[in-house]
Amino acid sequence: MAYLDLSAWPRRAHFDFYRAFDMPMFTVDVQVDVAALKAWTDRHGASFFLATLYLSQRAVHAVEPFRYRLRDDRVWVHDTVQAGATVLRDDDTFAFAYFDNAPTFADFQRAGRSVIADARASTGLAPQSGRDDLIHYSVLPWLHFTSIHNPRSGAPSDAIPKIVFGQYRPDGNRLAMPVSVTAHHGLMDGLHVGRYVEALSTYVATPTRGLSV
Length: 213
Hints:
Layout: E1 2-3, H1 12-18, E2 25-33, H2 35-44, H3 48-61, E3 68-71, E4 74-77, E5 82-88, E6 94-99, H4 105-120, E7 134-140, E8 162-166, E9 169-171, E10 174-184, H5 190-205, H6 207-210
Parallel strand pairs: 5-7, 7-8
Antiparallel strand pairs: 1-4, 2-10, 3-4, 5-6, 8-10, 9-10
Helix pairs in contact: 3-5
């Protein structure tokens, strides 16, 4: 982990320009074909949610700006970032749950099932507000949305990317799932979101290469 050398950063002008905005966040909403991933999880009795989260984290780490965080007037670069996601409880409220990265999907799923069980049994939210080594995830399995707007704290330092997965639906030979990405324009551009979507699309299209049970 280290601070980015802003003097050598080609995006320095973009960083200075956008971080002065009252609302520097931008959102991109796309559809990703998850047919192969859904078939794989059904075949192996695996969690579709945890498989999607695991592959998304792999895609996140393939695009460095997703690990950039704004700290005062500088940019911190994390070596790794973890997943923080909402988990629905039986009383129709949700909990914040945190999923550590793991070397294999089998390890990630084993730990993730325990995290989900603990979150469902919890009360309140217990947000880990002091952490910025996260990607914030939400899941809306009831909505095949075309666009979404995430709530923000309003703090200038709130630069954590937010990724939302929606309801998947058949679309011809595809199983289309909406994916929304919200990011700080001072730290990345649409190009970088596009690279994340490309990586995620590749991973979910070939799950046998990235998952094991």
